[in-house]
Amino acid sequence: MQPFRTHKGKVAPLHRANIDTDQIIPKQFLKRIERTGFGEFLFYDWRRTKDGSHDPSFSLNHPRHAGASVLVAGKNFGCGSSREHAVWALDDFGFRAVIAPSFADIFANNCVKNGVLAVVLKEEEVGEIVRRATEIPNYHLAIDLEQCKVHDDHGFSATFQIDDFTRHCLLEGLDDIGLTLKHEAEITAYEAQHPISRPAT
Fold it and tell me: Which residues constitute the domain of residue 36?
């Protein structure tokens, strides 16, 4: 998993509350078994019109937000089903962080397992970021996980809280497998002392 320490990227605003995982990645695209290739289907029903073309009124389709790597959304982001594909789609599209006033617990958990940072800020702070991303061309935010701080080049600054374990995993790029492999020596020693017994043939 790619470690997350500091990141500076263009911001895309999607200021809607209760964005559920079925909107993030609709169910018809869950048949893939790989973690890649989901980005093109991110927010599919919102990004595209009925004929399949890009809807120019949707914020992520606006040229000023092209190449954005920081998504700013409304409260309760990632609610609904527990599909991990939602985070895979965000990551595959290019988002390294999502900022919102609150997140659904399972979605936030899935973010940690995939190296995507979920930043919780106050509603007024999120609203200010959305305003700046809408009004300031090529608006970028810097996110510092080591300092738990978000800031831009226009005077905005905010701090966020994150539990120590989650912060450690993201800083070190450790998913569940990576955490287990940190104890590889102990696991190997245990296996050597407890050989597998095989039935006689």
Answer: 6-175
